[in-house]
Amino acid sequence: MRLEKCWFCSSTVYPGHGIQFVRNDAKIFRFCRSKCHKNFKMKRNPRKVKWTKAYRRLRGKDMTQDSTFEFERKRNRPERYDRNLTENTLKAIKKIDKVRVDREAKHHQKRMKKDKRPKINIDAQELKQSLNMVKAPDALRQDLLKKVQVQKQVDQTYAMEE
């Protein structure tokens, strides 16, 4: 069973699914669904459409280079059947999937780690600006009275200096 990749969004196209478009120069384009086919006909660039794999890779949201992607490549060379080779290959596929999942999880953690610091700073600024929403009214009045008293003391010291 041959699994193809959608030309537009890079998702998997299973046999009997999707649309195939053959251009005049005999180049074959496979699409997973009509959404991808329509976007292709509208001459949209997959790197500029937010839901595509190309966009996500370009913006650093998905892993772009990883040794586990090497195993996913399409190979057209037929191999002679060997039971031991097949058995080892199936074992390796399981290990590779586990490695890929772990690396994707680390990549996701790195991406999320970057965003936390600026968000904390923004939250702190917002808290300072709208402190009256959080503090009780009595506490705000006391703070205001303290500020007024301090201001009066400062004014008195300036008056004495003059």
Walk me through the structure.
By secondary structure, this protein is mainly α. Helices cover 56% and strands 7% of the residues. The chain contains five helices and four strands, in the order E-E-E-E-H-H-H-H-H. The strands form two sheets. Strands 1-2 form a two-stranded antiparallel sheet. The protein starts with a strand and ends with a helix. The model has no long low-confidence stretch (mean pLDDT 83).
Computed over alpha carbons, the radius of gyration is 31 Å
Written as H for each helix and E for each strand, in order along the chain, the element string is EEEEHHHHH
Q: Tally the beta strands.
A: 4
Class derived from helix and strand content: mainly alpha
What's the average pLDDT? 83
- Which sequence of strands runs across the widest sheet? 1-2
Given as residue ranges, the uncertain stretches (5+ residues, pLDDT < 50) are none
The biggest beta sheet is recorded as: 2 strands, antiparallel
Instruction: Bin the strand percentage.
Output: 5-15%
- Helix percent reads 55-70%
Alpha-carbon distance between the two ends? 94 Å
Tertiary shape = elongated
Count of helical regions: 5
Attribute tags:
single chain; 162 residues; mainly alpha; two-stranded antiparallel sheet; elongated
Summarize the structure.
With 162 residues, this protein is mainly alpha-helical. The chain has helices at residues 34-41, 53-58, 83-129, 131-134, 137-161; strands at residues 4-5, 12-13, 19-22, 28-31. A hairpin with a 5-residue loop joins strand 3 (19-22) and strand 4 (28-31).
